[in-house]
Design brief:
heterotetramer; A: about 325 residues; alpha/beta; Rossmann fold; 2 domains; about 20% strand; B: about 325 residues; six-stranded parallel sheet; 11 helices; binds thiamine diphosphate; binds magnesium ion
Chain lengths: ~325, ~325, ~325, ~325
């Protein structure tokens, strides 16, 4: 099996789906000619392969990019558009949330909007809070959207292919750090279903729910805790909407303890949703208080020590696990 | 360019239908609790939707806005299903989920109606992109107001459509008001059409109360788009004879201004011309009026006798 | 004491603050000349009183309206701008979330942005999902913003005055239904502090946390449940950010049971945050599973029976309370 | 209009400072891990920031963007504090919270720098509104790129500024590229300045590599704004001699294009003129260069020897 970063995996998925279905096209800022001349980037080489008709560089106009996807998808095309960085979602949010997500409902089920919006996310580049700001909680709170946040290249590939084939708008968020983390990617054409979590590590003492880059933080924390005799189960959500409640509840019923880890800021983050689901549906299984390990409620700072402070680390996560291991 | 008698008849019928439909709604809106939501009408502006849609083929697409009824009827919407949707009934075009403001009718190629001001413009660009991509012999028309032309979405969309030479016709219905704000109170520009130049796109100001001029401008823009010549921005000058919506008392609209524009009503203007040209008689006009009146009454009857959706129907149609 | 709707109370607060401080101005679509010629509306009569310099009707340009507030507030003015309906926040969201909320932080604390964004929210008018969509969870998840959602005219008045005097960006969300619900409003110039919840009804069996219009739903449900022998405490958050955790925890520690009620859709709604806080900090006090009573995960439909189905009702809330009263 | 020798000297110094500062950063960026984030420079474009800021009074405000260093230095930023912020040190203008991309310097009236493309434009309008409201004898200048002119924020802001005749000068720095996209690949418009007409605002295209022309256009626009004549849109034509940022290998930029523009470098152009006019000698120029080189070295020394902020400092400065 080849080793690749997530950008390369996304690239493969795009290439394969574009080859399979002439209705698939990609558009966005620099998806064709880019300032990044690197094969690690998700759309590298696609312009050369598929030409200007299907690989559309757009002006710096996020609302128009998103609207392009809405309109073209209504016609039965399958646009995959890129909003360069997650914070710029704000500029596309009217098109996505008030249109892509709602127009089918408003049509009484007559229209469909099979589009994918890819967004880069994640801190760690010293770029500051206008580039690094994880906003998955916004799209999760917008009925009509599906939300996918893979943690490995292989899953990114399989999930993106499913997202492109899905008849609904899918928000697909890629942590940029994972472009540079090489992991095995199968060369077959596996589709990974949207809406299914994956247990990345089995354990019996505590459940850590995470997604995207934080899955690796969780796995590192689990290793650390294993040394202390705690057996941590890591549930990788992969898809946030629709949420695989069953996977979460099954794990929590087994372990009786829950920690959620996300990079996004704390207040109003998606950890709250998971806590609510568990408190509603597995209350009696819980042996210890819930813990969240998240970014603090601050914009992401640029300076390296500050940015490192922002990021949930395996150590902080292990600390939280330790706290509740001592209870219940 | 010469307009056939048939086209003129089509426009006349469509304008009268739209007017009677609107007048009926004005009446119904006075009855407390009858029509849910904000009913927004095109009374006085009918030449725009009716003239533009007469220039289109059924395969052409329109994207419309909060002031959609005229556009939809002109594109061929069934008055029964339209009225039922306005009543929020289960038999309406969108099963009552949309109500008066966002009626989508994909079956007549009017697939997206949005009440977010300016929201239809990027979508129209996307729809036209699909037409170009597939080499369809069809265009997309986007209807929006003068106020909408101040939204960022207008700007980004027109720039992109011009850049890619997409087959789209941008129809700005300048009805003097955006809500309670007069045109000259929301921009210092002399016209919206002037903005075309900034995107390298032709822009024209056209009399929006003259169905023939409306039709001709739309026909030309469509032709240009079909032949690969890209988008056109047409600003039709017209007037909103009623309030922004039916709940608006129009306290800020000068009475004599309304009256003056009512004098320029596009319906007698076209029917008068047609009679003068000998392609319509008073008698035929009377029968047309009667027939339309009946169909509007029938639409109301259909809507009134239709059931509301069941509460749990609310849960359907979120995902495909 | 006079009786007034929330629009009138907001109107009084604006009038008083504009009179007190020449740096206060208002701007937005139809804040001066409006299609609504009604004294029940929040900005009615202010143009006549303060003139065109201070009451600025803007074009339909939400990003510009928000940017106006950002720029003017940096200069030390105190703009109060209106985004007509909550869903149109999307169009202003870049200015609010990436700029108003972050620029102070980016300046290292040198700049301040004392602005208020007022938004109308709430379903019940048959206007459909592009007008009715409660998005408070978005702004609560954006560090740098304060978020206020009053339930009564008197509190709206006192809180808006505090919001205008606050040196930070404050999002002030008014449920339109409350414009037509008349309640007493004191004529004095009370300031209600931002960040303090209010117990609207004391009770010992179950805590219902609510805000904005849903406080009245909670009070109605509490009355209903009183007849069944359950003593419901209703905590009105008033401010969502900063969250008065103490008020919530004090109540839950007393009652041992928690229900959160909000009009916004369920997944990713702010109820999740409250559940997380309680599960973290009062876990051992909890006697029964948590319940949320919220809008379902659908866009708000227009048709009256569907729209009524969407709205959390006292009956549904009472049902949820009943469920957990039987446990623990 | 005549430009004083003093002003010319000011521009020359500011351009050279900006160039040396940038060249130093280009060097530093090659050292792995030295400078955090995306360093984005104005090499070759210095006449714009330096010429415009020379036309301003200290009380005038500038709002800048991701390509800010030249603007900030020209407005009077301290190279030490600027460099320290670029290094993300505690002693930097913003305590390391901003880094290279969003440096805010309220003390020189450069209070908001945003890297959201187009994001500064609405803010500049708000800042100018405050000036008008208070009757201040000052204007706001907003710097943005040609790419930014395609964002919706540009459109909404220019329309509003023109409508209210706010004292703002919109400075579009057209450096041929927006990221990897050439100007003619992102708009079909012949110029950004053309867009002014659509808002009822004067728009001019000006040589952005000639400091004197830059200065004169800015001075006139400022004068107009101060006298109540409202905003102006100035498009300065210049060229981005380096990549979008220092990580950009410029693979899509023709080498001969870069070379041709380097020939038009604004610095020797101004210094050459000044020498010809007899207001500068080679000797003085050499001393100026030395002095500036020293100050840039000093800035690097200051930054290098400054501490990083403490991790927990991250929690400060969210709320006032
Ligand atoms: C984004 C957005 N902002 C504000 C509104 C409220 N609103 C509805 S219609 C309207 C005026 C629109 O004026 P115009 O575009 O001229 O269309 P007209 O109503 O005159 O047909 C406004 C402000 C809205 N629906 N959407
Ligand atoms: C809203 C937004 N979209 C995209 C980006 C990424 N981006 C940063 S600079 C840039 C190009 C801007 O071009 P231009 O406005 O011409 O400015 P220049 O870099 O040439 O000075 C892009 C696309 C961004 N920062 N913000
Ligand atoms: Mg109008
Ligand atoms: Mg540029």
């Amino acid at each position: 099996m080849q080793e690749a970063g997530m950008g390369q995996a996304v690239n493969e998925a795009l290439r394969e789906e574009m080859t399979r279905d002439p209705n698939v096209f990609i558009a966005g800022e620099g998806v064709g000619v880019s300032i990044h001349d690197s094969p690690l980037m998700p759309t590298h080489g696609l312009l050369e392969e598929f030409g200007e008709k299907r690989v559309r560089d757009t002006p710096v106009s996020e609302a128009a990019i998103a609207g392009l996807a809405v309109g073209a998808s209504e016609a039965g095309m399958r646009p995959v558009v890129e909003i360069m960085f997650n914070p710029f979602f704000t500029l596309a949010s009217d098109m996505i949330v008030n249109h892509a997500a709602k127009l089918r409902y408003l049509s009484g089920g007559k229209s469909a909007f099979p589009l994918v919006v890819r967004m880069k996310s994640g801190s760690g580049f010293g770029a500051g809070c206008q580039h690094s700001h994880n906003l998955e909680a916004w799209v999760c709170h917008s009925p009509g959207l599906k939300v996918v946040m893979p943690s490995t290249p292989a899953e990114a590939k399989g999930l993106l292919r499913s997202a492109i084939r899905d008849d609904n708008p899918v928000i697909f968020i890629e942590d940029m750090n994972l472009y540079f983390a090489f992991m095995p990617v199968p060369e077959d054409d596996t589709l990974i279903p949207i809406g299914k979590a994956d247990v990345k590590r089995e354990g019996k003492d505590v459940t850590v729910v995470a997604w995207s880059r934080m899955v690796h933080t969780a796995l590192a924390a689990a290793e650390q805790m294993a040394g202390e005799g705690a057996d941590v189960e890591v549930v990788d959500l992969r898809t946030l909407v629709p949420l695989d409640e069953e996977a979460i509840l099954t794990s929590v019923k087994k372990t009786g303890r829950l920690v959620v880890c996300h990079e996004a800021t704390r207040t109003g983050g998606f950890a709250g949703e998971i806590s609510a689901v568990v408190m509603e549906k597995a209350f009696s299984s819980l042996k210890a208080p819930f813990r969240r390990v998240t970014g603090p409620d601050i914009p992401v700072p640029a300076s390296p020590p500050l940015e490192a402070f922002y990021l949930p680390s395996p150590e902080k996560l292990a600390g939280a696990i330790r706290e509740i291991m001592n209870q219940g | 360019m010469e307009i056939s008698g048939e086209k003129k008849m089509e426009m006349l019928r469509s304008m009268i239908l739209s007017r009677r439909f609107s007048e009926k709604l004005t009446e119904l809106c006075k009855i407390e609790g009858k029509i849910p939501g904000m009913v927004i009408l095109s009374t006085g502006q009918e030449a725009v939707g009716s003239g533009v849609c007469a220039a289109l083929a059924p395969r052409d697409v329109i994207i419309t806005n909060h002031r959609s009824h005229n556009h939809l009827l002109a594109k061929g919407a069934d008055p029964n299903l339209l009225m039922a949707e306005i009543y929020c009934k289960k038999t309406g075009y969108n099963k009552g989920k949309s109500g008066t403001l966002h009626i989508a009718v994909p079956e007549i190629n009017a697939p997206c109606t949005t009440t977010v001001v300016g929201g239809g413009i990027p979508i129209a660009v996307g729809r036209a992109f699909a037409q170009q991509y597939r080499g369809e012999d069809a265009v997309t028309v986007c209807f929006f107001g003068d106020g909408a032309a101040d939204e960022g979405s207008f700007h980004e969309s027109l720039n992109l459509a011009a850049l890619w030479q997409l087959p789209v016709v941008f129809v700005c219905e300048n009805n003097v008001y955006a809500g309670a704000q007069r045109f000259e109170e929301h921009t210092r520009s002399k016209s919206i059409a002037d903005r075309g130049a900034g995107y390298g796109m032709p822009g024209f100001v056209v009399d929006g109360n003259n169905a023939a001029s409306v039709f001709n401008a739309a026909r030309e823009a469509r032709q240009l788009a079909l032949s690969g010549g890209g988008p056109t921005l047409i600003e039709y000058r017209t007037y909103r004879c009623r309030g922004h919506g039916e709940q608006d008392p129009q306290h800020y609209q000068p009475k004599d201004e309304i009256a003056a524009w009512m004098e320029k009503c596009p319906i007698p203007r076209l029917s008068g011309d047609m009679i003068a040209e000998g392609i319509l008689t008073q008698d035929q006009l009377g029968r047309l009026e009667d027939e339309i009146r009946d169909s509007v009454e029938a639409a109301v009857g259909f809507a009134e006798s239709s059931p509301y959706p069941e509460p749990e129907d609310a849960l359907e149609d979120v995902f495909a």
